Structures are given as structure tokens and as C-alpha cells.
Amino acid sequence: MTLTEIKREARAEAFARRKAAFAARSPDDGDRLTGVLAEHVGKTLAGYMPMRTEIDCMPSMAAHRGPVGVPVILGAGRPLKFRQWHPHANMVAGEFGAFIPETGDWVEPEVLIVPLLSFDRRGFRLGYGGGFYDRTLEGLRAKGPVTAIGFAFAAQEVDEVPIEATDQPLDLIVTESEVFVPSR
After folding, report:
1. Closest alpha carbon to 65 in 106, 37, 88
2. Nearest-CA neighbor of 104 among 147, 71, 148?
3. Please, which contacts does 80-85 make with residues 24 or more away whose CB atoms are closer than 8 Å?
4. Which element (helix H / strand E) includes 111?
5. HEC-encoded secondary structure of 139-154
6. Hey, which of 80, 122, 149, 180 would disulfide with 71, CB 3.0 to 4.6 Å?
């Protein structure tokens, strides 16, 4: 089986696990993330607009004391850019149905909340397969320090995410039940 096939199968399994966790979600699932972000007051944060069964990081984004951006897809094979967001921003549909602010300044994040399908204790994540966050993290890390926080339901953890050389690791993983620094 090729790595592409292995990842495709892993994604199908991960979607099912995440869907079940989403169905059992609680309104306080993001409390740990809000606590973690309190350590980053004043830093530029990038979150995401949750889609389908992604865990909701918006309450933590709204509580952040500092600039907040959300990802904008500029095209296949390109890194993400981040448009400034606030809770009352006028949102429009962007690529793949993710909502983005209709207008706003571009911001460069120092801290990113990264969505995912599955994660492992090494800090690797399985995303949707477009490589957007991997390219983005690689570019941001080349410029200076950046903290990538994986945010997920605990049920999304797997023993080992299939990885390739371009996959960027996470610096911290936050679930509704714990916060941990990956072991590499």
C-alpha cells in the first residue's frame, strides 16, 4: 500500500472518530484551549472557522487578548494567509466553504490553532491532504518562532499518524481532557 493510500484510509477512519466525538461534545470543550492561550496575551493568534465536525475554537479566539486572524486559501500549493478577525466581522464563504472575513488587514500569526483529523503523541497531525498548514508552518518557522497548537477531541488521538518529510509537527496539543507537549 502506498503512503497516499495509507493516508486516505487513515482519513476515513479519523472522520468517523471525529464525527462520534462531535456528537458527544460539551459546551466547555474549549476551556483548556482558552487557558493555554492566556499564556500568549498580546501575540497575534490564528484560529479557524470550524467546519463540519471540527472542535470549536471560536470562543477561545473571541477571548484572546491580541490580534486574531483566520486562514484564507489563496490557491492550491500555496501557504495560507491570515485575515484579521473579530467576533462581529462580516464573514463570506471562502475556498472549500470555510468562512473568512470579507475585509480586513492581513496578519502574521505567532501562535496558530491548527485543525486536524487525527494526531499522535509525537505531535504529528493528519490533515485534509492539501498541505496548507504544512507549507504555512514551514514558512513561518523559517522567519522566527511560532507556536502550533493542535486542537482536537481526545478521541482523535491515534497511535501513529502516517507522515512524510513535508509534514510539520505541532508544538502543543490541546483536547477537551488534557494539554500535552509532544515527545519527539
Report:
1. 37
2. 71
3. 80/132, 80/133, 80/135, 80/136, 81/106, 82/46, 82/106, 82/107, 82/108, 82/109, 83/107, 85/47, 85/61
4. strand 111-114
5. HHHHHCCCEEEEECCH
6. 80
Distance, C-alpha 21 to centroid of its chain: 17
- Cut 0.90: pTM above it: yes
Indicate if the pLDDT at residue 15 is higher than 80. yes
| Selection from 129, 114, 110, 123 nearest residue 169 by Cα | 123
What CATH number corresponds to the domain at position 40? 3.40.50.10420
The span from the CA of 89 to the CA of 112, in Å, is 19
Total tally of structural domains belonging to the chain: 1
